[in-house]
Amino acid sequence: ISGYSLVIQARDSGTPPLSSSVTVNVDISDVNDNSPVFTPANYTAVIQENKPVGTSILQLVVTDKDSFHNGPPFTFTILTGNEEEEFTLDPHGVLRSAVIFKHMVSTEYVLCVQAKDSGKPQQVSHTYVQVRVIEESIHKPTAIPLEIFIVTMEDDFPGGVIGKIHATDQDVYDVLTYTLKSEQKSLFKVNSHDGKIIALGGLDNGKYVLNVSVSDGRFQVPIDVVVHVEQLLQEMLQNTVTVRFENVSPEDFVGLHMHGFRRTLRNAVLSQKQDSLHIISIQPVAGSSQLDMLFAVQMHSGGFYKPAYLIQKLTNARRHLENVIRISAILEKNCSGLDCQEQHCEQSLSIDSHSLMTYSTARISFVCPRFYRNVRCMC
């Protein structure tokens, strides 16, 4: 308990008795009676041979139950095990290499490390750090090529995470880092630690090939990352058709079915080879295991096919489409629950281009805006 607040009353012996009250605050000052605590109590770490001087080996974690002025900052010291000065320990508790280690020279070091707090008198604690020197990498990293599709409204892309590179390495202790060529950093970024790809705002329509590489510190491997950006036209939203799938997640649809279904769908609804199929968005149906996919078809002349025409085409080809994935319904209007006939139902579709949904797998990622469907009776 760091303090008490007391109300004290004094009352005299007169008739009638008179009294007065005062508040007394009592602060309990901290005494430095707790030693720093290492978490965990002892450490084990590895470093590969031939790593450059200054390589980070380990981050020490220390806490103290005393108040802030009796706790950090902590002073770290290597007491034993560093007689040849192979290691350094910075004020933040990061253990680094001070030499280039060789597996043939020594395979293990045991250090005794002390942490001292800032109180008076100071309290100290100790931990032991076992550092093993292992052979350098012998296997190159392997990475899966990634293709990313981004759908956005005209000149209204807010940016965000659009996918993740999946890379592995057979060397158990290798730490992989990801880099992007500097000339592309005005449009994209890659998280160096986990391989997440971030697109900055304002991407133009078109195809981007990213020069990304993954390194284990010895080997560097290029990764094929292709980004396709498609900007929607407002006219598309007035001519969309919804295909509703049964029992499929967005990630499974993107990773397993999207390419095949797109190809089958093109064969079913395109009247001419020059026509263009646009998948506008995919979105789970709230409270169910169903998935909605919005699409529109643009004619070679520039206009769009009407939904009724596309639905007729889809209905005729439904059996072929279901060879790829099970379809629950083909919707132009969604008037269920409204007390009006289909022809008296008016539907409007709105796109929230600032609320992007990213469905990502190891090989393919699909980024699209969230959509809202509003229906009302015209009668």
UniProtKB/TrEMBL annotation:
Keywords noted in UniProt: Calcium, Membrane, Repeat, Transmembrane, Transmembrane helix
GO biological process: homophilic cell adhesion via plasma membrane adhesion molecules
Main location: membrane
Pfam family, one: Cadherin
Leader sequence residues: none
Subcellular location: Membrane
Residue ranges annotated for the Cadherin domain, each copy included: 4-38, 39-143, 154-253
Keyword Lipoprotein attached: no
InterPro entries, A to Z: Cadherin-like_dom, Cadherin-like_sf, Cadherin_CS
Protein name in UniProt: FAT3 protein
Species of origin: Grallaria varia (variegated antpitta)
Organism phylogeny: Eukaryota, Metazoa, Chordata, Craniata, Vertebrata
Annotated gene: Fat3_0
